[in-house]
Specification:
Largest sheet: 6 strands, mixed
Number of helices: 17
Distance between the termini: 8 Å
């Protein structure tokens, strides 16, 4: 009997020292079935363009995520420029049919399909905008009629700059102007005019961001980059993606950073557009959850490119923080291309890699200074849902053979107590 007890004690000690949750015995080796796969997509929908093609482009975009065959190609998605409240709800509802049961946005929060009630009343103060409207009518009529928002903004900032500054536009008013165009300031009629008391829409900015996931989202955040009003107001979404035993937890960020405002004078306290893009980039990298996470996806239209000297500092800063840039290092084709007909409408004359999915997973993935990855099977490709749908191509990054996460200290302590309890039961039986 004493010999049996001594054998039992030895077994308990071995169990306590070697047993780990989900891994069986201490000599367990990771099998192929333990390895996971994660596929992410970032895509600028260009649904902020309120032209005649927008209704059909919205329908096609929603249908993409409703189609389960197409939606099965991705696990986590970051969409940009889904500006409208109703557009976000439309795509979220369609995506649920395609298997994306979890979502996050500024307007809707996690998984909600309906935001709060619509507010009523003019988005802009008519008295403050009277002189601006008069100036725009006198100097920018051709640009307004063109429907090209970049040309309109350029005219407003160059020919009506004093009136624009004097108007002291609120962010709500800017949101309405971005939605309706400057003709909303000059007409004063219609339920959607920025000056009409009959206006009904959600003034809260969406920043155009929408995250979709097939895995549960937690620890969510919707964060703006700056408080001062801007025609290019930006922010980011952050969530913990619970990938289960195989994938573990990933921190996913969905963002759209400050752009190169070519032809539009910079207005803000950061000095110029490249400085503001850099500050946006650093703000994400310094996010407390992002910094402490081992497995991270930074997704979005980052508006910085390895072939754009003025914004290169932002791109290099991400790589210097041990992130891989699979698409730029493996593919390298433009995602915002001057040859794209929709980009041409926006005035594109050069091509850049603006769309990125940066990856950091230091426990199993090594990133070289040029952004290439080793230690796991990482691939990337450019994705297009069809011609004339957006001025951007999407980017897909696929990570295969992801090892299961190492158990945390808490898991190990819990496992040790469980093994000890089993051993004590053995002793009691003996």
């Amino acid at each position: 009997m004493a010999l049996l007890r001594s054998h039992a004690i030895v077994l308990v000690l071995v169990a306590v020292s070697q047993w780990q949750p989900g891994c069986g015995h201490g000599d367990h080796k990771v099998q192929k079935s333990d390895l996971g796969q994660l596929i992410a997509l970032t895509y600028n929908t260009a649904l902020s363009f309120s032209d005649m093609t927008k209704p059909s482009r919205l329908n096609e975009t929603a249908d993409l995520f409703r189609n389960k065959t197409v939606a099965d190609m991705w696990d986590v998605v970051c969409l940009q420029e889904v500006q409208e409240r109703e557009d976000q709800v439309r795509i979220m509802d369609a995506a649920r049919e395609g298997g994306f049961m979890y979502s996050l946005s500024f307007l809707n929060g996690t998984n909600a399909s309906v935001a709060g009630p619509l507010r009523s009343g003019p988005a802009c103060n008519g008295l403050k905008l009277l002189r601006l409207g008069q100036c725009m009518t006198a100097n920018c009529t051709a640009q307004i009629q063109s429907g090209n928002q970049r040309l309109v903004l350029s005219c407003a900032f160059t020919r009506c700059s004093s009136e624009l500054i004097a108007a002291q536009l609120s962010q709500e008013c800017i949101n309405c102007i971005n939605r309706e165009g400057f003709n909303g300031l000059t007409s004063g009629v219609g339920s959607r005019s920025c000056l009409s008391p009959m206006t009904r829409f959600d003034f809260q900015p969406t920043y155009g961001l929408l995250m979709l996931s097939k895995y549960p989202l937690s620890n969510t955040l919707a964060q703006t980059f700056r408080d001062e009003p801007s025609f290019f107001s930006r922010g980011y979404l952050r969530a913990t993606v619970a990938g289960g035993r195989t994938l573990g937890e990933w921190t996913a960020v969905c963002s759209h950073l400050y752009p190169n405002t070519i032809g539009i004078p910079y207005v803000g306290s950061r000095g110029n557009a490249s400085n503001e893009n850099f500050e946006n980039t650093v703000a994400i990298l310094n996010d407390t959850v992002v910094k402490k996470s081992d497995r991270v996806l930074l997704m979005g239209d980052m508006n910085h490119s390895p072939n754009e000297e003025e914004f290169l500092n932002s791109y290099n800063t991400v790589l210097n923080e041990s992130y891989c840039s699979p698409y730029a290092s493996l593919v390298g084709n433009c995602t915002f291309c001057a040859s794209n007909p929709v980009a041409q409408q926006a005035g594109a004359t050069r091509s850049f890699i603006y769309d990125h999915i940066y990856v950091r997973a230091s426990s199993f993935l090594q990133c070289s200074p040029n952004g290439s990855a080793t230690g796991a099977d990482v691939s990337a490709r450019r994705w297009s849902p069809g011609p004339r749908l957006s001025d951007h191509y999407g980017v897909v990054v696929e990570i295969d053979n992801i090892p299961p996460p190492s158990p945390s200290s808490a898991d190990k302590i819990q496992a040790s107590f469980l093994a000890l309890a089993i051993g004590l039961l053995l002793l009691a039986v003996i």
